[in-house]
Automatic annotation (TrEMBL):
Residues 147-149 are annotated as: G5. The keyword Lipoprotein does not apply. Residues 1-166 form the Era-type G domain. Belongs to the TRAFAC class TrmE-Era-EngA-EngB-Septin-like GTPase superfamily. Era GTPase family. This is GTPase Era. GO terms for molecular function: GTP binding; GTPase activity; ribosomal small subunit binding; small ribosomal subunit rRNA binding.
Length: 166
């Protein structure tokens, strides 16, 4: 199996950290500042079961309307148009208006895996289950995978879940 996977989400959810973790290289810049990823960044991961081409994208911007943000958002919508699968990244326990805006730009027929990142930050792990339930009402996600991109926890599970969706 082989396919293109877009990594999308609002700024700072950990998209670039996830790309680096998925391919095992520091290819995309990670920063606590928004707008660090201004262009698409592509990385390949091959194993016996599948070859993934991951495309990291700029954070989708809904706060300020300016030329840079418009151009970054255009990059996101363009990438979304020609991929086989989407990883929509959100932060554990937080789904706000800016996250919802990203859901709204998903193409109608997009196949989407929800990545709940930064689970290491959840002090009370019991909050994860109601959050997953809340999220499953937002969009018909093909899979929902909680993980920590920074620590690498459950990232292999994301790959396992995504492989049959390519
Ligand atoms: P992007 O804007 O979505 O590409 O986000 P980045 O990958 O640049 O990460 C934004 C910030 O979140 C950085 O400070 C990362 O170190 C941090 N971060 C990313 N993944 C995790 C995670 O799994 N856990 C925690 N605690 N922090 C993370
Ligand atoms: Mg980034």
């Amino acid at each position: 199996r082989t396919g293109f996977v877009a990594i999308v989400g609002r700024p700072n959810v950990g998209k670039s950290t996830l790309l680096n973790r998925l391919i095992g290289q520091k290819i995309s810049i990670v920063s606590s500042k928004a707008q660090t990823t201004r262009h698409r960044v592509t990385g390949i991961r091959s194993d016996a079961a599948a070859q993934f081409v991951f495309v990291d994208t700029p954070g989708f911007q809904t706060q300020h309307r300016n030329a840079l943000n418009r151009s970054m958002n255009r990059t996101v919508t363009q990438v979304l148009k020609d991929v086989d699968l989407v990883f929509l990244v959100v932060e554990a326990g937080r789904f706000g208006e800016d996250d919802r805006k990203v859901v709204e730009v998903l193409p109608a027929d997009a196949r989407v895996v929800l990545v709940i990142n930064k689970v290491d930050r959840l002090e009370d792990k019991r909050r994860l289950l109601p959050f997953i339930q809340e999220m499953s009402a937002v969009y018909p996600f093909a899979e929902i995978v909680p993980l920590s991109a920074e620590r690498g926890t459950n990232v292999d599970e994301l790959v396992r879940a995504a492989t049959p969706l390519l």
